[in-house]
Design brief:
There is one protein chain. By secondary structure, the chain is α+β, with helices and mostly antiparallel strands. The chain folds into two domains: 298 residues, no CATH class; 121 residues, Four Helix Bundle (Hemerythrin (Met), subunit A), CATH 1.20.120. 60% of the residues lie in helices and 11% in strands. It is built from 26 helices and ten strands. The strands form three sheets. A six-stranded mixed sheet has the order 3-5-6-7-8-9. Strands 1-10 form a two-stranded antiparallel ribbon. A hairpin with a 2-residue loop joins strand 5 and strand 6. Helix 13 crosses helix 19, helix 16 runs antiparallel to helix 18 and helix 22 runs antiparallel to helix 23. The longest helix has 26 residues. 31% of the residues are buried.
Length: 558
């Protein structure tokens, strides 16, 4: 069965943290107590008691003594979990204490790297910060510990690369070298991270050269630009619901409408101007095609002329979802022209698709090359860390685990620091336990900004294409606020906000339009955005208490 994690990584100062993590990843969870009733007595908790409770609950799950829902209710109702402490404040205290500890310079830099200010933080850094928050630590170690899974993502990509290589056949020597490299890598059973990194960089270099040489041998198809214009029009059609949402949320919807309409008209006009080229290509095609195409193009040219004269490509009926005649007409015209181009000059569509696919494959290779566990390459180089240590030292729980081992060998003056490290580790493990029993990803927010006391975030998949994200913040001046975001079909979002204090409610109301526009700028289409009454833990019990609602969880198997 799948389980979360317990406080096992810090159990022995004589064993390297990575070795202990790999033992846990392989299921070495023996010798855990199971006296849940005793540990759940509602008394004032201390650190050892909390660690014992979390460990016992996990053992109960692994032996199926209690169900996930039963343990979830224990966590929600037991007073022992009501005073877990403030992770952000404890983390800052730890950094302050370490500044007075000798020989802790590297560890201090690592921990300070996890302190990210929300102001100016981009989405890429935020994603990495969540991945390295400690919540997914054992999952990453489990994947590392398995030689069979180490190369699985790479080998899946190799199949795609070989299929793509069949098209790239103009440079025999280069294609042969790339094919040989791909074959060699696909036959390997196990590789170190460093070896894999070198191999992938070599593949990326060869792949880029092969694409470049392939295109240099190819003549530019006559109708390549025409085909690209059609793809731009199709993308504009897909973006129409987002444009409608922007208009609904903007204080100047007319400008957004005019900008979008002018853009579509520009594409249509440019496409119409390429018709002589399409007709010229048609004259060199087969008699059957030459007989069909002129009448089709004549009709489509008339349709394009009418569309170019259209004053508004965001009809009011589109927002009301009752009639999309204009959109359907535009789609029909682009489809007919696309079919004509593919008939008279199939090389145009093939080359455009080739370039798009090559860019996708290049991005996939770069994703595999990028060190997953560390988001500060300058710091990694400065501290001279080996690649084998990255799973540990690029993750907050890994750093705390190693720090625990270091402090355990230092004199008694480090007791306060050691206690704080163990407290922080226990807090992370509490979130890991809660993640599993609530069938969600439950994590504190490893970020900071002025006015934030603490925060947590929970994410879960409730349906095949629906995701919930609950964000709970405790603000110094404005009290608590709960937010629930529901994302479906990758671009539609509903948002509920429950501020504790009326002052914050007023500020939310004043800035609600700006929030909607910000969501639009992120490519999301806003649906229901509403303020609701604040209730302690209301979202948790309603949305995160069911075992059957999600397939999320911590990826540890025993």
């Amino acid at each position: 069965m799948q389980i979360s994690t317990a406080n096992l990584l810090a159990s022995s100062s004589n064993t390297r943290a990575l070795e202990k993590g790999e033992k846990l990843a392989k299921g070495n969870v023996n010798n855990l107590a199971v006296n849940l009733e005793k540990d759940l007595v509602p008394t004032t908790p201390n650190l050892q008691n909390l660690k014992s409770v979390i460990t016992n609950l996990l053992m109960s799950l692994s032996q199926e003594l209690k169900s996930k829902s039963a343990i979830f209710e224990m966590i929600q109702n037991s007073p022992i979990f009501k005073n877990m402490g403030n992770f952000s404040a404890d983390f800052k205290d730890l950094i302050t204490l370490l500044k007075n500890e000798p020989n802790m310079g590297k560890t201090l830099l690592l921990l300070e790297n996890f302190q990210k200010n929300m102001e100016g933080l981009d989405a890429k850094v935020l994603k990495e910060q969540v991945q390295n928050s400690g919540i997914f630590f054992e999952s990453k170690l489990a994947n590392k510990a398995s030689s069979e899974t180490q190369l699985i993502a790479v080998k899946n990509l190799l199949v795609e690369l070989k299929e793509h290589l069949v098209i790239t056949n103009k440079s025999t020597l280069l294609a042969k070298e790339l094919d040989s490299t791909l074959t060699s890598l696909s036959e390997k059973i196990q590789m170190t991270p460093k070896e894999l990194h070198v191999e992938l960089k070599n593949i990326l270099d060869l792949f880029r050269q092969s694409v470049k040489q392939h295109l240099s041998f190819e003549t530019t198809p006559t109708l390549k630009e025409s085909y690209k214009l059609i793809l731009k029009i199709e993308q504009a059609l897909q973006d129409t619901p987002l444009v409608v949402s922007k208009m609904q949320n903007s204080t100047n919807p007319v400008q957004i409408e005019q900008t979008f309409t002018q853009q579509v008209k520009m594409f249509l006009t440019a496409l119409k101007e390429t018709f002589p080229q399409i007709l010229a290509a048609e004259s060199n095609s087969t008699p059957e095609i030459a007989e069909q195409i002129p009448s089709i193009l004549d009709e489509m040219e008339i349709q394009l002329s009418r569309l170019v004269e259209t004053k508004n490509f965001i009809p009011q009926s589109l927002a009301q979802e009752v009639d999309m005649t204009l959109q359907e007409q535009l789609k029909m015209v682009t489809n007919r022209i696309k079919q004509a181009i593919e008939l008279v000059d199939p090389q145009s569509s093939k080359q455009v698709k080739y370039i798009e696919h090559a860019l996708v494959l290049e991005q996939k290779i770069q994703t595999l090359i990028k060190p997953e566990a560390f988001n500060n390459m300058a710091l990694m180089q400065k501290l001279s860390f080996a690649p084998t240590d990255m799973e540990i030292l690029g993750d907050m729980k890994g750093v705390l685990t190693k720090l625990n081992d270091q402090l355990s060998t230092i004199t008694t003056k480090s007791n306060e620091t050691l206690d704080l490290v163990q407290k922080l580790t226990t807090q992370i493990e509490y979130h890991q336990l809660l993640s599993y029993v609530s069938s969600s990803n439950h994590l504190y927010i490893p970020l900071s900004w002025q006015g934030l006391k603490e925060g947590s975030m929970m994410m879960k998949q409730t349906q095949e294409e629906s995701f919930h994200c609950q964000i709970d913040l405790d603000l110094e001046h404005y009290g608590k606020v709960n937010m629930m975001l529901i994302l479906f079909q990758d671009k539609y979002i509903d948002l509920s906000i429950a501020p504790q204090k009326s002052e914050l409610r007023g500020k939310v109301i004043d800035n609600l339009q700006e929030l909607k526009c910000a969501l639009n700028d992120a490519g999301l289409i806003t649906g229901n955005v509403k303020l609701i009454e604040y209730k302690e833990n209301s979202f948790i019990k309603q949305q995160y208490g069911s075992e059957t609602m999600s397939n999320f969880g911590i990826n540890i198997k025993i």
